[in-house]
Amino acid sequence: MTRPGDAAAATEWSAVLTRPAGQSAELAARLRALGWRVHDWPALLLTGLPAIDVPQPGAFDLVIFVSGNAARFYLEQLATARGTLRVGWPADVAVGAVGPSSAGAVRRLLGDTVELLAPAPDAPVFDSEALWAVLSRGPLPREVLIVRGGEGREGHGRPWLAGRLADAGVRVTLYAAYRRAPARWPAYRLRQLRAWRAAGRHPVWHVSSREGLAAILQQVGPADAVAGWTGGRVVVGHPRIADAVAAVAHSCGVATRRYEGPGAAPESSAVVIQTTLPHDDAVLATIVN
To answer: Could you tell me which residue ranges the Tetrapyrrole biosynthesis uroporphyrinogen III synthase domain spans (predicted)?
Structure first.
């Protein structure tokens, strides 16, 4: 690994973080403390929806939040609908979370007394399949609310989990608490990307979702995005995101090299994709490599 001031520092000691606004703050601070130049460029804009006909948690046995954002926006809606600052959670309603980020958000928002069903912190992967493995160990709930983002009243996200629950006889209600839209990057950021490509500089990119990847491609274009990643590294939080990055690279005629976690070196003619767990400790270790 190079050090700041070395010839390669402009490439390996620069990172582009694309989580929604505010969600990379701690990661960015830790990278800067290590001497990295950080570009916190959210790829998605999240917007809460009006508190109209919000499903009440007491009508369900289990409420699943597909992300920390889903938990935050839903609880804000409940508080608005009830005219209170904080929401009291029914003692007999469990909460489901797919990973440590959403589980941590639940604990911060609802406290330690709520029954939380989530994959173990040391699980090899955090996704719908991991949460299903937890839920299927015991009696399944009768009524489940899945809170997510997206278009329409039901939104989108975690369709596999909703399908498995429904196939097992569970009544599933889908609810969108917020909207996701591609963020519009200002012109100076797009000029920065072109300048990096022209100079042969390749910051490490962190892409945290397939929706975020689609938003980046919508703004930059697949060919220019892949040109910027070729010779550099892209860090992702799940194999399905790695699959999506690889598909884009291959569609542009560029090879990929895939690795698990830190320890991968950039290759001049390929996009190096590193898959890691989505929490900050793992992402940090993989970015600094």
So the answer is: 26-246
